[in-house]
Here is the input.
Amino acid sequence: MGDVALPLAFGLGIASFASPCVVPLVPVYLANIAGLTVLTGEPPTRRHILISTILFVGGFGLVFLLMGTALQVVFGAVPMLIKQRIAGTLLILFGVLLYASTRIPQLNFQSRLSMDKARGTGYVRSFMLGSIFAIGWTPCIGPIIGGVLAMAAYGGDVLAAVPPLIAYSLGLGVPFVIMGGLLGTPTGTRLMQVLTRHAYLATILGSITLIVVGVLMFTGRI
Here is the structure.
């Protein structure tokens, strides 16, 4: 599993960013992260936007890391064969749930930021927003992060849980940083349009990936 865990977790992070409940709202997220002026004709400096976005990514990355390591502590003593079966089953279930969210609107919701909450700014606030909305994004990307947490708990010890969680956070966070850097540019606008048009495709690919990896894990092939 170690050979595929990091690229898989990173790819699932990108799929989370590209999902229908995240990518269309990237301007709103950036407005809340760096201040409402990012959407005006006189936005703050690129440096301010990038630092704020990086801190936002650090906030949700820390929460995911704490969640994963806590699961590893709880299930660390469970025999590997049993963890293999449990983690594989969970990945399959999360994959099915993720696909179902594209068909059942009631499953496709999350706590969303809004423009009326984008009045403040500040680096500490950006970090705290990342921490808070690591939880608020569920259950829309919950199946994906659930799958990554299952992968993290599958490892042999607490340290083994850290790399896939960091990889997932980077996969989810790097696109935020890139979009922050491109905000207001023609390239950024075109990229947003492409991502929005293909958002459901990213969700379906993420669903298939979770199911396939779950089957391979359950059968002991990875």
Q: What stands out?
A: Residues 46-75 form the longest helix (30 residues).
